[in-house]
Design a protein that fits this description.
heterodimer, A: alpha+beta, Rossmann fold, OB fold (Dihydrolipoamide Acetyltransferase, E2P), six-stranded mixed beta sheet, five-stranded antiparallel beta sheet, 11 helices, elongated, B: mainly alpha, MetI-like fold, two-stranded antiparallel sheet, 13 helices, 2 strands, about 0% strand
Chain lengths: ~400, ~300
C-alpha cells in the first residue's frame, strides 16, 4: 500500500522486507481490550485492534454496532470501562479530549455557526497557542488544500453542504493530528458529490500521509476508500481485512451476508480429498468447494457463493475431462430478472425450491443473450469461487 | 384574490384579529392616556380639563384641543422627584437583571444538561410558583423577612446574629423579591436556547483543544446570546415599571416610577401628571423594545 511504503524508511529497508515493519514497529494506535457499557448494553465489548501509521482504516457496521462509540472513545468523549488505548505508545484512555493529539470530523460537521470559515479553521490553532502569523499561514494552507479560496469570510450557513464538509475537514486537519477520526464524513452529501469526495479524501490522506479512521455504515464507501476495514457487530470486530479479503474471504456467515450479496447453502462436510471438500447441502445437492485456509473445526458449514460468480448457461458449461467433475451445476428456472445497468441479476429457482441469485455483466448493448423469466437454465460455479464458512 | 389562494375568509379574519386586538386594547387606551397627559388637573368629574364632549358640537372640540398643553411633561423634567424616580427604576432594573442573569444562567445551563427525563421535571419546578398568586407570594416574603420572621429566627438559632436584623423595608428585601419573582422569566428563554444547542459543537471545541472554560466562553456563551437578550429584556422591561414589590418590600425613602405614578393617580388625584409619567415611561421602555425587536429580526435572518 502506498501509505505503508511512504512510512517506511526505504533507504534502510531492503525491498524484500517491506512487509516487516508490521512486525517490528509498534502500531500508531493500539486498542487493547476496550469495553464500554451503557447501562446493561455493551456498546463496545473487549475490542482489540492495531492501526499502523499512514493507514486509511474504515470501521464498518450496521447502526448500533458500536462503531461510533469506539470512535468517540478514541476522541475522548467517552471513557472506556476497561482496556487501554495506546497512541504512539502512550495510554490515552483517561486523557481529556482537549489534550489528545487526535482530531475528529463530526458527522454533521459541527461547524461553529457564529464564526467565519477562517475562524472555524483557526479555532484549533489558536488553542494550540500558535503565533498570529503562523496561524494566518496555516489557515491559508488549509483553505487552499480543500479548495475554499474566496469563502474565508463566509459564515457556515452561507455555505453549501459540500463546502461545509470541506470546512469541517480543513478544521480537523489544521492541527495536523497524529490521528484523524471521521464520523460518517460523507453521509450528508448527495451521491454524485459523495463519489468525488471519496476520491479527494483518499488523495488527501495519501498526500498528507496521515492516519485516518473513518466510521461508516456504507460498505461501498468503506471498500472504495479504506486500505483495511474492520467489520463490527454487537460491539465486537467480526473481521479486520482488506476490502478484497473481506469480500472474497469473509470470516463468518455474518460478514458474508453483511458485505455484498451472497448465496448461502447450509450443509455438512461429507468427505475431503487433496484440495477439495465435498459438502452435502439440503438445497443444492453435493457441492465441491475449495479447502479453506483455516482448517474447519466443525463439519456443519455454509457454502457461500457471490452472485457474480454464478454463471448461467442454457445447457451447462462446456467441459473437458478433469474440471467436469469439479464444477458445481444447479438446474432451475429463472423466476425474476432485475436490470441494473451494468449488471442484470437473475433469480433462479432450483428444482429443490431454493433460490440462487446470479449477476451477469451486460457486456453487449443489445440483450440478445439475456435470459428470460421461466426459462430453464443451468447455474454453475467452480469450487474455487465458493467459500466454506462455519455456522 | 384568486380562487386558489390560501387566504380564505376565516384565514383573513384570523390575520386581522391581532390588529383589532392591538387597536382596541392598546392604541385606543393609549390615545386616552395621551390626551389626559396633555390636559390640566381640575376639581371635577373626571378630574381633568378640558373634556372632549361631542354633544356640544365641533366648535367646542376645537376649543378643547386648543386648551391642551405639554405643561405636565415640563413638570416631569423640572421636578427632581420624577427624574430621581425614573433613575431609581432604571438602576433597580439594571441591578436586578444583572443578578437574575448571574443566577439564572447557571440554573438554565444545568437544566439543559440534565437527562431529558429530568429536564421536564426541572421545568415544572421552575414554573410551579406561578400556581400561587404573585401577591400572596410577596406577602409570604413579608412574613419571612419581618422582625420575628423565619429568616431572623433561623439566623438567631444558628447564632449568626445576636439580635434580629432589619430586612423588611430595605432595598435588600426589594431585590430579593424582584429576583425571586422574575427568575422564571430569565431561566426559561435561556434554557430554551441552551437546550437547542447542538452538543456536538461543544465536543468539537474540546476536540480542537479548548479547555472546558474556553469551550464555554468561545462557543456555548456566544451561541446562547439570543437567549440572554430575551431573558434580559423580559426581566428589565417589567422591572422598570414594577410597583407591587418595591411598594411592599422596600422602604419609602426612594420611590420607583411605578410608585410615583400610583401616588399621583390615587393620592394626589392628578390624572394628567400620572398620565404624562406613564407616557414618558413608555417612551423609555421603547428603546430596549426596539433593540429586542432588531435582535430577533437579525436572528430570523440568520436562521434563513
Amino acid at each position: 500500500m502506498a501509505g505503508d511504503l511512504a512510512n517506511t524508511d526505504i533507504a534502510a529497508t531492503p525491498a524484500k522486507t517491506v512487509a516487516l515493519p508490521d512486525l517490528i514497529d509498534m502500531p500508531l494506535l493500539r486498542i487493547e481490550g476496550v469495553a464500554k457499557r451503557f447501562g446493561g448494553f455493551r456498546a463496545v465489548d473487549r475490542l482489540s485492534l492495531d492501526i499502523r501509521a499512514g493507514e486509511f482504516f474504515a470501521l464498518l457496521g450496521p447502526s448500533g454496532c458500536g462503531k461510533t462509540t469506539l470512535l468517540r472513545i478514541l476522541a475522548g468523549f467517552e471513557t472506556p470501562d476497561e482496556g487501554h488505548i495506546l497512541l504512539d505508545g502512550k495510554d490515552i484512555a483517561q486523557v481529556l479530549p482537549h489534550q489528545r493529539p487526535v482530531n475528529m470530523m463530526f458527522q454533521n460537521y459541527a461547524l461553529f455557526p457564529h464564526l467565519s470559515v477562517r475562524d472555524n479553521i483557526a479555532f484549533g490553532l489558536r488553542r494550540a497557542g500558535m503565533t498570529r502569523p503562523a496561524i494566518e499561514t496555516r489557515v491559508s494552507e488549509m483553505v487552499a488544500l480543500v479548495k475554499l479560496e474566496g469563502l474565508e469570510m463566509r459564515k457556515p450557513d452561507q455555505l453549501s453542504g459540500g463546502q461545509k464538509q470541506r470546512v469541517a475537514l480543513a478544521r480537523a486537519l489544521a492541527r495536523r493530528p497524529q490521528l484523524l477520526l471521521l464520523d460518517e464524513p460523507l453521509a450528508a452529501l448527495d451521491k454524485k458529490l459523495r463519489e468525488s469526495t471519496q476520491l479527494e479524501l483518499m488523495e488527501l490522506q495519501r498526500r498528507l500521509n496521515m492516519t485516518f479512521i473513518v466510521v461508516t455504515h456504507d460498505q461501498e464507501e468503506a471498500m472504495t476508500m479504506a486500505g483495511r476495514i474492520g467489520v463490527m457487530d454487537a460491539g465486537r470486530l467480526e473481521q479486520v481485512a482488506t476490502p478484497r479479503e473481506l469480500y472474497e474471504a469473509p470470516a463468518s456467515r455474518w460478514v458474508a451476508e453483511f458485505v455484498g450479496d451472497v448465496n448461502l447453502f447450509d450443509g455438512q462436510v461429507a468427505s475431503r480429498d487433496a484440495h477439495r471438500l465435498m459438502v452435502t447441502t439440503r438445497d443444492a445437492g453435493t457441492l465441491s468447494v475449495a479447502e479453506p485456509r483455516q482448517p474447519l473445526s466443525r463439519s456443519i458449514v455454509s457454502v457461500a457463493i457471490r452472485p457474480e460468480k454464478v454463471k448461467l448457461s442454457r445447457r451447462g458449461p462446456a467441459m473437458d475431462g478433469a474440471s467436469a467433475q469439479a464444477i458445481n451445476r444447479l438446474e432451475g428456472i429463472i423466476v425474476d430478472t432485475t436490470y441494473l445497468g451494468g449488471l442484470t441479476v437473475y433469480k433462479v429457482k432450483l428444482d429443490s425450491g431454493a433460490m440462487v441469485r446470479a449477476a451477469m455483466a451486460n457486456t453487449a448493448r443489445l440483450d440478445m443473450d439475456a435470459y428470460r423469466a421461466s426459462q430453464r437454465v443451468v447455474a454453475w460455479f467452480t469450487p474455487d469461487d465458493c467459500v466454506v464458512l462455519e455456522q | 384574490m384568486s380562487a386558489g389562494s390560501i387566504f380564505t375568509r376565516p384565514a383573513r379574519l384570523a390575520a386581522i384579529a391581532p390588529y383589532v386586538w392591538m387597536v382596541l386594547f392598546f392604541l385606543v387606551p393609549f390615545a386616552f392616556v395621551l390626551k389626559i397627559s396633555l390636559s390640566q388637573t381640575a376639581i371635577s368629574q373626571p378630574p381633568y380639563a378640558p373634556v372632549f364632549d361631542l354633544g356640544e358640537g365641533f366648535a367646542s372640540l376645537g376649543a378643547a384641543l386648543a386648551a391642551l398643553s405639554s405643561d405636565n411633561f415640563h413638570l416631569l423634567f423640572s421636578d427632581d422627584l420624577y427624574v430621581l424616580s425614573y433613575l431609581r427604576s432604571l438602576v433597580v432594573a439594571a441591578v436586578s437583571t444583572s443578578i437574575l442573569l448571574l443566577i439564572g444562567y447557571p440554573i438554565a445551563y444545568g437544566m439543559a444538561r440534565l437527562p431529558k427525563r429530568w429536564q421536564a421535571i426541572a421545568m415544572m419546578l421552575v414554573i410551579v410558583p406561578f400556581w400561587t398568586s404573585f401577591l400572596i407570594r410577596i406577602y409570604a416574603w413579608i412574613n419571612i423577612l419581618q422582625h420575628d420572621g423565619l429568616l431572623n429566627q433561623i439566623l438567631l438559632a444558628l447564632h449568626l446574629v445576636s439580635t434580629p436584623m432589619v430586612w423588611l423595608s430595605t432595598d435588600t428585601a426589594m431585590y430579593l423579591g424582584i429576583v425571586y419573582s422574575y427568575l422564571p422569566f430569565m431561566i426559561l428563554p435561556l434554557y430554551a436556547t441552551l437546550a437547542k444547542l447542538d452538543p456536538a459543537l461543544e465536543e468539537a471545541a474540546a476536540d480542537l483543544g479548548a479547555a472546558p472554560r474556553e469551550v464555554f466562553w468561545l462557543v456555548t456563551f456566544p451561541l446562547s446570546l439570543p437567549g440572554v437578550g430575551a431573558g434580559v429584556l423580559l426581566c428589565f422591561i417589567p422591572i422598570v415599571g414594577e410597583f407591587v414589590i418595591p411598594d411592599l418590600l422596600a422602604g419609602s425613602d426612594a420611590l420607583m416610577i411605578g410608585q410615583t405614578l400610583w401616588l399621583e393617580f390615587f393620592t394626589n388625584k392628578d390624572w394628567p401628571v400620572a398620565s404624562a409619567t406613564a407616557i414618558v415611561l413608555l417612551a423609555l421602555l421603547l428603546v430596549p423594545l426596539v433593540l429586542y425587536d432588531r435582535l430577533q429580526r437579525r436572528q430570523l435572518e440568520a436562521a434563513r
